[in-house]
Write a structure and sequence with these properties.
Elements: H1 3-26, H2 37-50, E1 65-68, E2 71-74, H3 79-83, H4 85-98, E3 105-107, E4 114-116, H5 118-149, H6 154-166, H7 170-173, H8 180-197, H9 207-227, H10 232-249, H11 254-280, H12 307-315, H13 321-324, H14 331-340, H15 344-363, H16 382-386, H17 389-394, H18 398-421, H19 439-449, H20 457-460, H21 465-505
Antiparallel strand pairs: 1-2, 3-4
Helix pairs in contact: 1-5, 1-21, 2-4, 4-5, 5-6, 5-8, 6-21, 8-9, 8-10, 9-10, 9-11, 10-15, 12-15, 14-15, 18-19
């Protein structure tokens, strides 16, 4: 497919993919009162309402906190709280306009126990929509279009995007106010920028255009680190991949791209360094260095990577990735297909990003990530596990594609169950083991069979179990089906066009 027809088809699918993904992520919501989300939303509200970095009022509701200057602070990297500021400002203002005396915390008159209010829940939902849901939905589109730039078919590119968004635990982490899904999304944005900046073209790139593009890529890569500090090795891998591509494909742009990337990283890093300097009088000191260790945690610390922990993160019933996304069993085949297609540097990048997160997680003292379903510290790497499936799809036979599709659907059902039922599985902190042998078999599937899906927004608004489930399934499932059919139509049109050209040439 060439020219305008190709562009129109890609644009239609991109828009449809974004709308379906944003609806899928936005219509599931959880995490209010979770110890991980509370300090993040508290910091956003403190900045918006008081111009402060202290979260004293919210300290009793979270164990993920530290101290500085005689106050409680969020010990998290502040990137997600920063990204949410515009949405939180609007949502908080709307709540104050609706009720001048609105409060985020109230004390029960009978028990005397403080609790978070429904008004805070609405503000956090808006913050989640404007960060986790929005950026992940956009990342699906960027991954789709990046795969196209790298030479795969439209169906292959869409399949990889759908695996990323709907057949991995990304589905769950895009529905709550955690930083994992946005971190992965910004890595996708950075990869897309790097690929687009290093595609040879007939038109001459000016030095200014190269510098500006590099600056944008640097901002995106810097944002990844401000979201999650442990993503720094993955950022280095993406940067090295971009440098290699530029040196080999667009050497005349390399110097300006690199100079721009350095400036971009400094630009996005400045607020982070200022945040640290204001709190700790040291721009290079971070919140985790000032954490108050909660009960059951030894420390925020790292040790030698453990093969046993790595096995638990991939295969274990309590945290194992493959139980939630069995399609990732085929990741080695996807890497091989990508390698054999000639995209060897990309294959190495995808393997390296996943390996970086796995090694760091396996070395973390609290590797189990608290109360979480699945290995949530691996979540940012999931798009790099999904991208090679574009090449696997293109190089597969009809029967192999049916098997791929079946595994993707099974994975999608399991990840939907995770997102709509239980993102925060219990954990025995003393024994470092899950209270259930297998969270999928013993918790998610039984509740899914009963249509017990408390995280569906329609359910939270009072709809019955059946209405909430089938309304969501009809909207999202129908949208995904239409998307897939649209690529089939586009592919058929392209085949007819090529056949017509061959006949004319004959």
């Amino acid at each position: 497919m060439q020219g305008r027809a190709m562009d129109e088809a890609v644009n239609r699918i991109s828009l449809g993919l974004f709308l379906v993904a944003f609806a899928a992520f936005g219509l599931i919501f959880s995490g209010v009162g979770n110890g991980n989300t509370v300090p993040r939303i508290a910091l956003s509200l403190a900045i918006v309402e008081h111009g402060s970095l202290f979260i004293d009022d919210f300290a009793p509701f979270t164990e993920d906190k530290g101290t500085a200057r005689g106050h409680y602070i969020s010990d998290k990297a502040p990137g997600l709280s920063f990204l949410a500021l515009p949405a939180v400002a609007v949502a908080a203002k709307a709540e104050h306009l609706h009720a001048a005396d609105v409060r985020w915390i109230e004390t029960d008159t009978e028990s005397g126990v403080p609790h978070l209010t429904p008004e805070l829940q609405r503000v956090q939902w808006v913050a989640t929509l404007a960060t986790s849901a929005l950026y992940t939905a956009l990342a699906l589109v960027v991954l789709f279009r990046t795969a196209l730039l790298l030479g795969v078919s439209m169906q292959g590119a869409l399949f990889a995007a759908l695996v990323y968004g709907f057949a991995t635990p990304t589905w769950g982490w895009a529905t709550t106010f955690f930083s994992h899904a946005p971190c992965g999304a910004f890595m996708v944005f950075a990869l897309g920028a790097v690929v687009a900046a290093t595609v040879p073209s007939d038109t001459q790139w000016t030095r200014l255009k190269s510098f500006a593009t590099g600056t944008g890529a640097g901002v995106l890569l810097g944002m990844v680190i401000v979201l999650e500090l442990t993503a720094a090795p993955a950022v280095a891998c993406i940067g090295a991949f971009g440098l290699w591509r530029s040196l080999h494909a667009t050497p005349n742009r390399t110097v300006m791209l690199v100079a721009g990337a350095v400036l971009g990283g400094l630009i996005v890093g400045a607020p982070f360094l200022l945040h640290n300097a204001l709190l700790f009088e040291n721009p290079f000191s971070v919140g985790y260095s000032h954490s108050l260790s909660p009960p059951g945690y030894a420390a925020i610390d790292f040790t030698v990577p453990s093969a046993a922990v790595a096995a638990q993160l991939i295969f274990g019933g309590g945290r194992g990735l493959l139980w939630l996304a069995p399609i990732l069993l085929l990741a080695p085949l996807a890497w091989r297909a990508t390698w054999q297609s000639g995209a060897r540097a990309l294959t190495l990048l995808c393997v390296a990003v996943f390996a970086a997160f796995l090694v760091i997680n396996a070395a973390y003292v609290n590797w189990y990530a608290g109360a979480a379903t699945g290995p949530r510290y691996l979540a940012p790497a999931l798009p790099f596990l999904a991208l090679p499936f574009a090449w696997l799809w293109d190089r597969s036979s009809v029967n192999a594609r049916r098997a791929l599709g079946s595994l993707a659907i099974l994975s999608g059902v399991l990840c939907f169950a995770m997102a709509s039922i239980q993102l925060f599985a219990p954990w025995d902190y003393q024994r470092q083991t899950s209270p259930v042998a297998n969270v999928v078999a013993e918790t998610l599937l039984p509740k899914l069979a009963k249509q017990d899906l408390p995280n569906l927004v329609l359910r939270q608004m009072g709809a019955s179990r059946r209405v909430a489930l089938w309304s969501y399934a009809g909207l999202i499932g129908g949208g995904l089906l239409l998307l897939w059919l649209s690529t089939s139509v586009a592919a058929s049109s392209e085949r007819r066009r090529r056949d017509t050209l061959r006949l004319r040439e004959a």
